[in-house]
Amino acid sequence: MLAEERFSMILQLLKEKRTATVGECSEITGASEATVRRDLNLLHKQGKLIKVHGGATILDNTFVMGERDVTTKSQMNVEEKKRIAAYAAAQIEEDDFVFLDAGTTTIYMADYINTANAVYVTTGIELARRLMEKGLRVFVVGGQLKAGTEAIMGSQAVDSMSRYNFTKAFLGMNGVSVRAGFTTPDPEEAMTKATAMERSYITYILADHTKFGKVSSVTVAPLSAATIITDQLADEVYREHTTVKEVSEG
């Protein structure tokens, strides 16, 4: 039996049962357990399943339809977002030229930013207002204002950002998946986020634990393109693709 046939049978078994042992995979494929272990390791690296002791589990790539408004999102996972925001803000140094994405976690960053000499560029109206109130130097990207998320996006935003060279960028995402990478539901917003990442020396993705295993409509970038800051890592497989910083409570 060809390897691709074994892979297909193993993935179908996981789709039906969600978990499977090495023995069960060996039985349905007719391959030795040593061969199955190698298959599972390869499929794990490809992001098609999660290898666990004695077998494998299905990779939970839940598709996310649409997007909640800012008010709704601001009431979800508040303490986790604040911990992520505090750690992210601590990465900013006085000589940095920083891009801050629109989003509820980046808005919390304004409460923790103490680097007065850094310069900030943002696509978030509320975030810009908060930074200005702290006496910080902040620029707002021009472009279309998206209802619901209050994010500036589109071709004008991309043109505006193409002149900047950021030292660090901090972005939110709707989904973080091994297979699909960093995803968001809006193509124009995805283009804006991708431009920020391309124009930045270092990019941080701020994602609480609920974002892992989720896939939205448009891939912004692969996992390798940024460092992830999270409150709790969903699965160790993500560390095989990028740097992940877990911000524990307290």
Give a quick summary of the entry.
With 250 residues, the chain is an alpha/beta fold. 35% of the residues lie in helices and 26% in strands. It is built from nine helices and 17 strands.
Structure in words:
The chain is an alpha/beta fold and 250 residues long. The protein has two domains: 3-59, Arc Repressor Mutant, subunit A; 70-246, Rossmann fold. The chain is 35% helix and 26% strand. The chain has nine helices and 17 strands. Helix 2 (22-29) packs across helix 3 (33-45). The relative contact order is 0.13. The model has no long low-confidence stretch (mean pLDDT 89).
Ordered list of secondary-structure elements with their pairings:
Blueprint (H helix, E strand, L loop, with lengths): L2 H15 L1 E3 H8 L3 H13 L3 E4 L2 E4 L3 E2 L6 H5 L3 H12 L7 E4 L3 H6 L9 E4 L2 H9 L3 E4 L3 E3 L4 E3 L1 H7 L4 E7 L2 E3 L3 E4 L2 H12 L1 E7 L7 E2 L2 E4 L5 E4 L13 E3 L4
Parallel strand pairs: 4-14, 5-6, 5-10, 6-7, 10-13, 13-16, 16-17
Antiparallel strand pairs: 1-3, 2-3, 8-9, 11-12, 12-15
Helix pairs in contact: 2-3, 8-9
Structural class: alpha/beta
What is the typical, i.e. mean, pLDDT?
89
Query: How does CATH name the architecture of the largest domain?
Result: 3-Layer(aba) Sandwich
Question: Kindly, what is the distance between the CA atoms of the first and last residues, rounded to a whole number of angstroms?
Answer: 53 Å
What would you call the shape? elongated
Could you state the order of secondary-structure elements as H and E? HEHHEEEHHEHEHEEEHEEEHEEEEE
DSSP strand count: 17
CATH topology of the largest domain: Rossmann fold
